[in-house]
Amino acid sequence: QVQLVESGGGLVQAGGSLRLSCAAHGGTFSVNAMGWFRQAPGKEREFVATIRWSGSNTYYSDSVKGRFTISRDNTKNTIYLQMTSLKPEDTAVYYCAAGPTPDFITPDSRLYYRYWGQGTQVTVSS
Questions:
Q1: Rounded CA gap, 109 and 59, in Å?
Q2: CA-CA to 113 of 20 to 30 Å: which in 29, 46, 50, 83?
Q3: Distance from C-alpha of 3 to C-alpha of 1, rounded to nearest angstrom
């Protein structure tokens, strides 16, 4: 079973940057995509970004497009989320996700992911 370990969360000021990491451990053979979701208090968990395990396909939510960058290191089974120009509304618990997702869709829903990390808190102060 895949285990996801997240790191990099913290407190930053608006306009600042933060880099999240997520390392996948265990049997990752079936994983073909990993992504990031976030959940603010009182809100549903929402999609942030995703990347295919191979290739260069990435997809971002409109709210973070142009500010966040998702990347991967296949040799380390690790993905990253480089967050820049952070806004207070980016404050949330960020979750790493992985799973065998259909090739013919963009896995922008949490329903497509089988494995989840514990979450790392990102707080952006104004």
A1: 12
A2: 83
A3: 6
